[in-house]
Amino acid sequence: MSRDKAPKRHKRRESSVSKPVAPPRPDPETLEIVLWPDPVLTRRAGDVEQIDSWLLQVIERMKHLMEAHEGVGLAAPQVGLPLRLFVMAEKAKADQAIAVINPVLELGSETQEAEEGCLSLPGIRGQVIRAKQITLTGYDVKGGPISMPLEDFPARIAQHENDHLDGVLIIARMSPSARIAHGKKLRELEEKAQ
Ligand code: NI
Question: What's residue 5's pLDDT?
Fold first, then answer.
């Protein structure tokens, strides 16, 4: 998949030697599913720099939350972490879930449309066009390379979760009429967040 990288902006800082701010590392047990319109869901996430015990605990927590909410996939921004990482399991079972770190998707040309929902957009479902076949590459929890061809439902899950890492939600992929149809529900989520 071609990923458009945002152009780098030069930040004006008082000091040219200021260190980059390390992302927060909250206690994995406190992580919960974040709902739209939380801004973490619409920002591009950054690469995972190291696989350590904190990250492994985060992954276990994500698998648990995915199963508890009957989801088939969950991306790190959905638990408030702007990291390129997702878990997925076709049957929504934590013990069958795989974790993919710094994933890259190569999309086949054939597409198909099907209904999707998202744990960060409760009550909203809509038709989304996805590639029928993809190749998913990335790293596993041991840092080993992953490369797997996926088709149909698993390919759809990986594309949905990878979208989260680019800050793209299903409401951005639905037709304009579907977005209008969900207007009331979206306004309710906005009001709840205030
Ligand atoms: Ni989602």
Answer: 46
Whole-number Å distance, alpha carbon 19 to ligand 1 midpoint, is: 33
Confirm if 26 and 80 have CB atoms less than 8 A apart.
yes
Q: Note the pLDDT tens digit of each residue in 13-25.
A: 555 566 667 778 9
Whether the ω angle into residue 37 lies within 30 degrees of 0, i.e. cis, is: yes
Q: What pTM, to 2 d.p., does this model score?
A: 0.88
pLDDT digits (tens, 9 = 90+) for 94-110: 999 999 999 999 999 99
Q: Confirm whether 57 is domain-assigned.
A: yes
CATH code at position 143 = 3.90.45.10
Residue 9 lies in a domain: no
Into how many domains does the chain fold?
Answer: 1
3-state SS, residue 78: helix
Distance 76 CA to ligand 1 centre (A): 10
**74, 117 Cβ separation under 8 angstroms:** no
